[in-house]
Amino acid sequence: GAGVSQTPSNKVTEKGKYVELRCDPISGHTALYWYRQSLGQGPEFLIYFQGTGAADDSGLPNDRFFAVRPEGSVSTLKIQRTERGDSAVYLCASSARLAGPTDTQYFGPGTRLTVL
Amino acid sequence: RKEVEQDPGPFNVPEGATVAFNCTYSNSASQSFFWYRQDCRKEPKLLMSVYSSGNEDGRFTAQLNRASQYISLLIRDSKLSDSATYLCVVNTPQAGTALIFGKGTTLSVSS
User: Fold this and answer.
1) Where does A38-105 show beta strands of DSSP type E?
2) pLDDT in tens, B3-41
3) CA geometry: angle A17, A20, A21, nearest 5 deg
4) How far apart are CA B51 and CA B76, in angstroms?
5) Which residues make Cβ contacts (< 8 Å) with residue B91, sequence separation at least 6?
6) ∠A92-A40-B108 over CA atoms, to 5°?
7) Distance (Å, rounded) from C-alpha B70 to C-alpha B67?
8) Chain A residues inside the 8 Å CB shell of B99
């Protein structure tokens, strides 16, 4: 079946602009995660959705970052007033069950964001 | 101190070699442990979960030492296709269901 998909695969923007990154989880997966991976680092947690609600947004670095999942499926990560330090690969993952730390998280291919 | 620490490598080994990766974690309350594999410019993929009793999957063996807060991954008979970055990953109750990743250890297997 289809895996996690993310669009766009690459996004180049200018400092100060607004960007939206989209994630389509595996069908039926209730849990959705956003991570950010900078060069040479492992992924870092940003936010977790269970259904439509953000169950944990403790990883969002500041209030320029916001994410939604209005219908409990597709999620959009929104970044306002982008800064060069926001350049990274933004990874989305989904898992099947409710709040299960041992549940396998399946990652999408990521969106490579470059802020000039 | 970072929550999950790994030797970044790179580890350069010939085909057929045995190679071991080590990882330490700082939070003694950590409950779940994994190794993920990430190919260049690709997404991370679960390689194996790590259990206290140790577990093996073909050429791969993972060990967990809770007392030392130490996780290891052993790869026997290395193949060219094993070349990748191996990420040590833990989950802690405080993190909810989020995964905490190490920086990764890069392995390059050559013929």
Assistant:
1) 44-50, 53-56, 65-68, 75-79, 88-95
2) 999 988 899 999 999 999 999 999 998 888 999 999 999
3) 135
4) 19
5) A101, A102, B30, B31, B32, B33, B34, B97, B98, B99, B100
6) 105
7) 8
8) 33, 35, 43, 45, 105
Residues 6+ apart with CB under 8 A from B67: none
Rounded Cα–Cα distance for residues A90 and A20 (Å): 11
Determine phi and psi for B81, rounding to 5 degrees.
-70, -10
A28: exposed, middle or buried (Cβ count in 10 Å: 0-12, 13-18, 19+): exposed
d(CA B15, CA B75): 11
Higher pLDDT, B94 or A13: A13
Chain A hits for B8, CB-CB cut-off 8 Å, are 40
Instruction: Print burial letters for B29-44: b (CB count within 10 Å at least 16), e (below 16).
Output: ebebbbbbbbeeeebb
CB proximity B108 to A under 8 Å: no
Residue B1 predicted with pLDDT over 80: no
For residue B85, what pLDDT is reported? 97
- Of the residues B2, B27, B43, the best mutation for testing chain A's interface (the one with the most A CB atoms within 10 Å of its CB) is B43
Give the pLDDT band of residue A109 (cuts 50, 70, 90).
very high
- pLDDT per residue over A7-20, tens digit each? 999 999 999 999 99
